[in-house]
Amino acid sequence: MGLRIIVVLAVLMGVTGSPTTTVRPETTSVDTAAHPNSIPETAEETGQNEVFSEEEAAEDVMATGELNPNHYPAQRAAKVVQHYLTTRYGSPYRLFGLHRVHSGNAEDVGDSGRKYQLEISVHEIISNTTQKCSAEVFFPHGQKQESPQVQASCEELLNISTKAQEEALYQQYKMNQTLLSAQNLPDSHGHIEPDVKPLWHLGIVASSFIMLKESSENTLYNMAQVANITQLETENEQLKFDCHTLLHDMVSQEILHWKLLFAWSPAEGVKVLQMEQLPHCQHCEKPPNTN
Amino acid sequence: EKMKSWLLGLFLLTNTDLYTTHSVVEGLESMQNYDYTKYHPMDEIYRWMEDVERANPELISSAVYGYTYEGRNITLLKLGLNDTAGSEKKVIWMDCGIHAREWIAPAFCQWFVKEIVNSYKTNKKLGQMLQNLDIYVTPVINVDGYIFTWANNSTRLWRKSRSLPPPDSTCYGVDLNRNFKANWGTIGVSFDSCENTYCGKSAGSEPEAQAVMDFVGTMVNQTLCFLTIHSAGQLILLPYGHPEISAPNYNELVSVGQAAAVEMKKVHGMNYTVGTSPQILYPNSGSSRDWARLIGIPFSYTFELRDKGEFGHLLPEDHIQPACEEAYVGALSIITYVHDKAFKNSAVTTVKHFTLVSGFTMTIWSTIVAVFVTTGFMV
């Protein structure tokens, strides 16, 4: 009798279904789009992008007129503004990131170059505040590579005073018995020891001079790493540093090595004394001993 | 007497599973001790893949689908549940770490697997999707390059594979994401082997790229979605990398990408920009994303994870969790969309036919338990 009950129960459960097994309904075939291969089709743009549809084809021949703020021409020009602001106002306690591009416009200036007008927001990293800026970036189109020229006005860029902290750091470094030195900022895991963070920040400010100078419409520079920063002896009030910095250019995906000599004091800010690009280090890239 | 035979039956049933249960427990323990908020070297990732498969035999299986230039296994984890109805399963592809220095990408693939493992039993929708889909996850494609970035401080920013220099050069490696058969060598590449966008000597010349094309090529008709994970920049890139070629489902690709970006922003407020590479980054050719779309996979995206330049590729470990949380939500948003589109009546409904073999076994088992309890009381 027990066995019969089991069979009946089993059959009953089979009919009504068990809650743990999910049902597979009829599947509809995947709606793959029609053959996507080599037929070039003009991109259909909807919504706010429709305005820029004419710009799209011309974009790689350099966009002119109103720019899509999310597209690369405005973004690259805005990044230059970030570097400019860092060179002018940066310090161990003030660093800038590009937060957003709100609008942009570009026009040719005869044959001499192209001028961008931008409305952007910049992020002051250390105080974690954001503010708006209006800026103009002029990229010269000469025979040899020339630096862009930037003008920017931001609402209250220097609102948060860093003078006290800078002075304290300056005094601390001045009074040190030994000269400071640090490597790999950040390290492979993105880590920076808190006591060497100001050195990292100084390295970023100094590197921004290079990034500003080297920028064009075909680059997008960011800091990769401060490989080495070493304090040097000075006879005057300024602190002096020797720095090996690694820059990342997003467009070529290359890491550029530069050597920098720079001075810093709260009164004068960061001043670059010498800069030199180092050759692409071929022999660094041989494999290590083992697999 | 009947009582004794039932007890024996119960005992036998539990004990046949004892060996596999022990293995499962071991694997589970390893999995729970694994720190997903740290970067792991390759040997730990290989071991983790073994542990995660052992701990979840009903969900995960692994496969080696190719070998790197230096001869290492290219391994994937296949996530999927037994398909009780027996209809054909569709495929989702996800790969991480084509570029060696983009450490957050392999970290995300591991995170993704962990999240699925931890939620598929309680998340009904996810469980259902896993019955209809197999998700193939390759935590590290460019194994040689990834291992190289762990060698010492000067190798951390390596991008390419580790293939030997061509005859007239001393420079190693090919940019694997320029080596795929997708308008190869036409734009956004270098033919200089010393450069970081060197596209190789011919399309698919690199074993890592060829392995993906061979494997996914066998499943192309079932593949709904191809996701390739990179850093940095906070972008969701859709095909194509060539400025004059558009995907026929461009509008849908944009709207699905934008929906993902909206979900991602909800997690930690981070902006992810959606567009084609020539629009928001730079033109390029030979990318895996483009190859996938060209062979007919309808949805193909490159995810560029955090950040926007403050740390770049050297993303601190305390950023791993938030970066992965938002990326998970974004990936799942796209996976859910393509699943629901393919399985239009995917609500849990009544049975249309008798459940098949595995269902029947489950039925027998629960019946035995029910009877045991009943007879126990009767005795």
Largest sheet of chain A: 5 strands, antiparallel
Number of strands of chain B: 8
Task: Kindly report the spatial arrangement of strands forming the biggest sheet of chain A.
Answer: 1-2-3-4-5
Order of adjacent strands in the largest pleated sheet of chain B: 1-2-4-3-5-8-6-7
CATH fold-level name of chain A: Nuclear Transport Factor 2, Chain: A
The CATH first-level class of chain A comes to Alpha Beta
**Quaternary status:** heterodimer
Indicate the percent of residues in helices of chain B: 40-55%
Tell me which CATH architecture of chain B applies here.
3-Layer(aba) Sandwich
For the record, give the distance between the C-alpha atoms at the N and C termini of chain A, rounded to a whole number. 68 Å
Instruction: Please tally the helical runs of chain B, counting DSSP H or I stretches of 4 or more residues.
Output: 12
Structural class of chain B: alpha/beta
Rg from Cα of chain A:
28 Å
Kindly give the count of domains of chain A. 1
Q: What is the count of DSSP helices of chain A, taking H or I runs of 4+ residues? A: 5
SSE sequence of chain B, one letter per element: HHHEEEHHEHHEEHEHHEHH
**Order of SSEs of chain A, N→C?**
HHEHEEEEHEHEEEE
**Poorly predicted spans of chain B:** 347-360
Largest interface: A-B, 79 and 101 residues
> Rough shape of chain B?
globular
- What is the CA-CA span between the terminal residues of chain B? 11 Å
Domain Cystatin LXN-type (chain A): 63-162, 181-289
Protein name (chain A): Latexin
Organism (chain A): Amphiprion percula
Family (chain A): Belongs to the protease inhibitor I47 (latexin) family.
